[in-house]
Write a structure and sequence with these properties.
Layout (H helix, E strand, L loop, with lengths): L2 E11 L4 E3 H7 L4 H8 L3 E3 L7 H18 L10 E5 L11 H7 L6 E5 L5 H15 L4 E9 L9 H6 L2 E12 L6 E8 L7 E3 L4 H4 L12 E3 L1 H23 L9 E4 L4 H10 L11 H4 L6 H12 L7 E8 L3 E8 L19
Parallel strand pairs: 4-5, 4-6, 11-12
Antiparallel strand pairs: 1-7, 2-3, 6-7, 8-13, 9-10, 12-13
Helix pairs in contact: 3-4, 8-9
Amino acid sequence: MSRAAVVCGLGAWVPPRVVPNDVLAEQLDTSDEWIRTRTGIERRHVIEPGDATSDLAVEAGRRALASAAARGGAEAEGIDLVVLATSTPDHPCPATAPVVAERLGLGGVAAFDVGAVCTGFVYALAVAASMLTAGTAQRALVIGADTFSTILDPGDRTTRAIFGDGAGAVVLRTGDADEPGALLGFDLGSDGAGSDMITVRAGGSRQRSTGEPAPEGDQYFSMAGRAVFTEAVLNMSKSAQNLIDRIGWTGDASVDRVVAHQANVRILRAVGDQLGLADEQIVVNLDKVGNTVAGSIPLALADAVAAGDVRPGHRVLLTGFGGGLTWGSAALRWPDLALVPDPTPTLRKEQS
């Protein structure tokens, strides 16, 4: 039996404030019908003023740790690695992961951020799994969290309709490749030639080094929607198929569920079509939360597990596409996990 990283805990969190399509329609030149037709989204959650990505990451992390503990798995004090996937850190410097680790009572462990936008969770999962199988760590908390509401142009109906805030997390432990929950493989890729398709142009060293003020609007997120649609379908489908072929999930052992990045319902359906899968095999939760970027895949996974749509023994494929351009997929047989929706006590919020 070969050494593997095994999923043994799962948790997710969205902020309580809900923004339905009708609220956006009152503020922008849009309508509930326009948003639903083009994206499949009905509502999204956004943080309150003063909140930050770390607050969501901590809540999702607590739930994942409680989930692991409920099955007799990794307790908080057993975690020796925290990897946070985010494109909206609390500050440009330092990384947000050490703050999250400290607030979870994990101060002193290795903790760092991974930036791959909407593919971030898959990349973070791959990094953590590699460290576990190499023996660098024994138990890891992997979190995807983003607060894109903080970088959207208030007047852009397209981006404001798509994105929401949220976080999801898993706990990994070392184990054997034949165990339920073992991560069976990854497929990762990138194409920097498309970096301008999904970007925030201002705020980094490229713009700051000019010594000139950023052009108006460059401080906000921007996306080339049509081009991104095409690239997302192409690269998620190709990455997923590459991994399926590599691990031999074909014929009677084909994929049971695909949990893809929740960007747009038409993208999800198109990926399913490319893989020859039925609509019911594609997990969809973006109608309730929108595109939560790095939080998207673990949030969708948690919702599907809670609803009984992803069950123990299911062959589950995770796949994402995001800025960079980046894409990636991961595969596992789903284990028997206990979700803990509201562990107590609530951690105090610390802002700096």
